[in-house]
UniProtKB/TrEMBL annotation, chain A:
Keywords: Signal. It comes from Prauserella flavalba. It holds the Pfam family SBP_bac_6. Gene3D superfamilies: Periplasmic binding protein-like II. Residues 1-22 form the signal peptide. This is Iron ABC transporter substrate-binding protein.
Automatic annotation (TrEMBL), chain B:
The lineage of its organism: Bacteria, Bacillati, Actinomycetota, Actinomycetes, Pseudonocardiales. It holds the Pfam family BPD_transp_1. This is Iron ABC transporter permease. Its main location: membrane. Residues 88-295, 386-577 form the ABC transmembrane type-1 domain.
Length: 380, 587
């Protein structure tokens, strides 16, 4: 008995040791290759001789850059995981600064951030969320502190980009449209306009994420109600769609062919397509829904040069271009259009792009979700 | 029953009459340690629960920095919400049916391995344990890959074979099947230890007096196993009742709301409706406390002692021509709970395209690539998470077992005044949905002046608190069926109580203690919902990493590959406690 016990303990100890110390993994996530060149070729010129200058735009002066090299960005994000993985890998590749991501859905993240902040234990230097109301709450409680990146002059030219003089910023906009399983749907069958989703052939084969699941889907519901009326939403509900709680799970179902057509977040779907999933997106001419992706520096970030540099980079041309290449719509005005693979999203100020503003969110979120729930016979 | 009690009564006078000094000592221990114990358990459990209670009745969510005591009853309005009643009803239906299924499976396997001559008993025993290595979340994920109505592998296979039948796992039946299968091992473990340690004297008596085998089972064996059956029924029911992952993966796509998914949606609403979620949680706590009290009352009336340090060879019943058919039944369970889910996960991990219309697609060149396992095994994320998981699970299971033993001993063996409170408090976590308790724990450890938040220690503490009920139930069913005379005799002969406990009761209970440790180890390895609130980027554990990959990352392939390795690690880990308890655990 005793020998067996010793043997057992030794086995476990060994297992703990080998797994804990782990034989030197490469540490390269699959995202890093894609971030380097697949999504968008690396910038032509990265100059680090005097601070950090990418393609002629100064991201950081010498002092900030040197300090940031010894530091690490701690990013909490409610934005999609695939795109954040790509973004942090790209940030690392372009700047050489270390970055660490904690990702969870915006509502959970909000609970976590407010609790940590209340206990003076907020570790994140930068917090990114997808809901304007959450960002406002953060600002009110001092989770966000004032910080103006070098590009602030350019940013201030856009509507709804700089909030409270820089307490938080719109990093970029998320676009929401629809897509299909490219192995199951081909040729004439491919839907092109929003009305095509009402075709009886999609009955029971359509997927949607319920409107209360987050800012992006509430925005989509509001867009559909505004642009096509309540009847459209009711007719969509009558298609007996499969209703999901999160976009990622829906995307997986689409890739497997469990559903054939779905309303989808642009950037996450594009990420899945690049990773080899048989899904394709549609940029419908009759409009596309947009929502906010907001970020700000925290009190901990005030002391972190890397966190400041991350915000500078995100709002730089290089950072915005990379966001566009991933399927976001840049927030910084006046940039040349960057395609997302084979797709071209409309710019933020275009007619085709229907933005769900923070005012909309405040006034209409609840009623929009309620209308949607009724149309889809959904309790939640 | 009477036979047994009279033996016990007779045993005492036959002992040599004690010296006056030691007379006081051999009496039922007073359990003086019960107060500090109550403080520890109370602190671990009641403080987070208190936060939840406060949230239920306070105007704002009690976050650190904004705790106030402005109370209100307005959150009770959540009960008038459409869908609450339906969700409650669904939860009850799923809870009751899946518990019955789990008891049926677990009881069947426990009985055939402990008391019959079923072929390959050791193997059948392993079948009963094996689903423990598949966390219910992973099991649900695998079953959604297998049984989703359009692209489910089973449905693709049946279409290939020209069978016109569709499996739809996104249904009430599907949820019950998966819950029942993956909670059966808890019932199995608890009932097995009780059945294998049953004193054969009573059954022999039944046989001698002319009772048939069936009569004997009905009037002696099953009544004796009642504490274990009721204990596991309570455990399994509350577990299923509040299970979030399986409902989320399988019931939600079928538009079946359950209480946990409803609460989850409240928490995830924008803005978060944590107050209302807490109200629903408080009601759940009350219901489960009532059930626990009821169970205590039923069991308190009788004595169920079956282990007495005398003859320990439980009687084996010959199954005759039913040996192989019953063995086949066990195999079907193995197929549905382990073989098919693991095969589905492996297939998902190695397929290059997630889309498949026919199994013939797999024969296409390049359709299969085993590289995903290598990539996962080499990734830092996996290595860190796996190391953290193993460390957290081993430590929290060990400490949790010790604490459960101390509490179990105090509750069932002493006259301590606090024992009722101690048991009640220990059972509280069972009643609070993990998703709500997770928030309570987060708030607690953020406001504590000790810098534990953000370390692995806080996960360990959380696991010990959350798994207290399971630990206590495991220990309780063993302690109740262990004769206390032997320990009392040692004290009578001058040994200190602590020494008597350590050298007599603990060794007698080693099977029960080992299975409790095993259960806590597996639970800690599997725990997903609670750490979801507590992990930081430095303290990733495997369950979280897999959930994150699937739920947030859309990386089903990596998630599947990681799940398979996760199950293997759990399998290896489980080897240790089975060795420890080798005397009775492996027949």
């Amino acid at each position: 008995m005793r020998r067996k016990l010793t043997l057992g303990l030794a086995t476990t100890a060994l297992l703990v040791l080998t797994t804990a110390c782990g034989g030197g993994g490469s540490g390269e996530s699959p995202a890093s290759d894609a971030a380097r060149n697949e999504v968008l070729p690396m910038p032509a010129k990265i100059d680090t001789s005097n601070g950090l200058v990418i393609d002629g735009e100064r991201i950081a002066d010498k002092q900030l850059f040197e300090a940031a090299k010894k530091d690490k960005v701690v990013l909490y994000s409610g934005s999609g995981k695939e795109s954040e993985d790509l973004t942090i890998a790209r940030f690392k590749a372009e700047t050489g600064i270390d970055i660490e991501l904690t990702r969870m859905p915006t509502n959970k993240l909000s609970e976590r951030v407010l609790s940590e902040h209340g206990a003076n234990q907020l570790g994140a230097g930068v917090v990114r969320v997808t809901d304007p109301l959450v960002a406002e709450e953060f600002a009110k409680r001092g989770v966000y502190v004032n910080y103006q990146p070098p590009s602030i002059g350019e940013l201030a030219k856009g509507d709804n980009v700089v909030f409270n003089d820089g307490q938080y910023l719109t990093a970029y906009y998320s676009a929401y449209a629809f897509g299909y399983n490219s192995a199951a749907v081909q040729g004439k069958d491919v839907p092109k306009k929003w009305a095509d989703l009402l075709d009886p052939k999609w009955k029971g084969k359509l997927g949607v994420v319920h409107a209360g699941a987050g800012g992006t889907v509430t925005a989509l519901a509001a867009f559909q109600l505004d642009a096509f009326g309540e009847d459209y939403v009711k007719a969509l509900g009558a298609q007996q769609p499969r209703i999901f709680d999160t976009t990622s799970v829906q995307l997986e179902a689409l890739a497997r062919g469990e559903i054939t057509v779905a309303t989808l977040g642009f950037n996450s779907t594009y990420g899945a397509e690049v990773a080899g999933a048989p899904v394709k997106l549609v940029v419908p001419e009759d409009g596309i829904s947009g929502s906010f992706n907001l970020m700000g520096l925290t009190p901990a970030g005030e002391k972190s040069p890397a966190a400041k540099l991350f915000i500078n980079w995100t709002m730089s041309k290089a950072g915005q271009k990379f966001a566009a290449a991933q399927g976001f719509v840049p927030a910084r005005p006046g940039l040349e259009p960057t395609p997302t693979g084979e797709y071209q999203l409309p710019p933020a100020d275009s007619e085709q792009f229907h933005l769900f503003t923070p005012e909309d969110a405040k006034e209409r979120s609840a009623s929009t979700v309620q209308t949607w729930n009724q149309a889809f016979h959904f309790t939640g | 029953m009477t036979t047994m009690q009279s033996t016990r009564v007779k045993a005492r006078p036959s002992a040599p009459s004690p010296a006056p000094a030691s007379r006081r000592r051999w009496r039922r221990p007073k359990g003086l340690g019960s107060l500090p114990l109550l403080l520890v358990v109370g602190f671990l459990i009641l403080v987070p629960a208190g936060f939840v209670l406060l949230a239920a009745f306070s105007v704002d969510i009690p976050r650190p920095g904004s705790i106030n005591f402005d109370l209100t009853l307005k959150h009770l309005a959540v009960f008038t919400e459409p869908g609450v009643l339906k969700a409650t009803l669904n939860s009850l239906i799923i809870g009751v049916s899946a518990t019955l299924l789990a008891l049926l499976i677990g009881g069947f396997l426990a009985f055939v391995t402990a008391r019959t001559n079923i072929p390959m008993r050791g193997f059948v025993f392993l079948i009963g344990l094996m689903p423990l290595f598949l966390p219910s979340y992973v099991g649900a994920l695998a079953w959604s890959i297998l049984g989703s109505p359009v692209a489910g592998l089973l449905n693709i296979g049946m279409r290939d074979l020209g069978i016109d039948f569709t499996v739809n796992i996104y249904s009430m039946g599907g949820v019950v099947l998966v819950m029942g299968m993956f909670y059966a091992p808890y019932a199995f473990l608890l009932m097995h230890s009780s059945m294998s340690l049953m004193n054969p004297d009573l059954e022999d008596a039944a046989g001698v007096h002319g009772g048939s085998t069936w009569q004997m089972l009905r009037s002696v064996t099953f009544p004796l196993a009642l504490p274990a059956i009721l204990g596991s029924a309570l455990l399994v029911f509350t577990h299923i009742f509040e299970n979030f992952p399986v409902s989320q993966v399988l019931a939600t796509p079928g538009q079946i709301d359950t209480l946990p998914t409803f609460i989850y949606r409240l928490m995830n609403a924008s803005p978060s409706r944590g107050n209302e979620a807490a109200v629903m949680a408080v009601v759940l706590v009350l219901v489960v406390l009532l059930v626990t009290l009821g169970q205590r009352r039923i069991l308190a009336r009788r004595s169920y002692t079956t282990v007495s340090g005398k003859g320990l060879k439980a009687r084996r019943i010959s199954l005759g021509r039913w040996r192989w058919p019953l063995f086949a039944v066990a195999l079907v369970y193995l197929l549905l709970s382990i073989v098919l889910p693991l095969a589905a996960l492996v297939l998902t991990a190695v397929r290059t395209s997630p889309y498949m219309q026919s199994f013939n697609d797999l024969s296409a060149p390049g359709a299969i690539d085993f590289g995903s396992f290598g990539r996962v095994l080499q990734s830092d994320l996996f290595l860190d998470s796996a190391g953290n998981s193993v460390l957290v699970a081993v430590v929290s299971a060990a400490l949790g077992t010790v604490l459960a033993f101390l509490v179990g001993y105090t509750v069932y063996r002493t006259k301590a005044k606090a024992r009722g409170a101690l048991e009640g408090v220990s059972m509280v976590p069972l009643a609070i949905p993990a998703i709500v308790l997770g928030m309570g724990l987060l708030w607690t450890w953020l406001v504590m002046p000790v810098p534990l938040y953000g370390t692995l220690a806080v996960l360990m503490i959380a696991f010990i608190a959350v798994q207290m009920p399971q630990g206590l139930r495991g220990i309780a069913s063993s302690i109740q069926s262990t004769e206390r005379d032997l320990e009392d005799n040692a004290v009578l002969h001058g040994a200190r109580r602590s020494r008597a406990v350590l050298s007599i009761t603990v060794p007698l209970m080693r099977v029960g203690i080992a299975s409790t440790f095993l259960m806590l180890l597996m639970l800690s390895m599997r725990e997903l919902t609670v750490p979801l609130f507590l992990y930081t980027s430095d303290t990733h554990i495997l369950s979280i990493t897999i959930f994150d990959q699937f739920e947030n990352g859309g990386a089903l392939q990596q998630a599947a590959a990681m799940s398979v390795i996760y199950c293997l690690i759990m399998f290896v880990l489980s080897y240790l406690p089975r060795r420890l308890g080798s005397g009775g655990m492996t027949p």
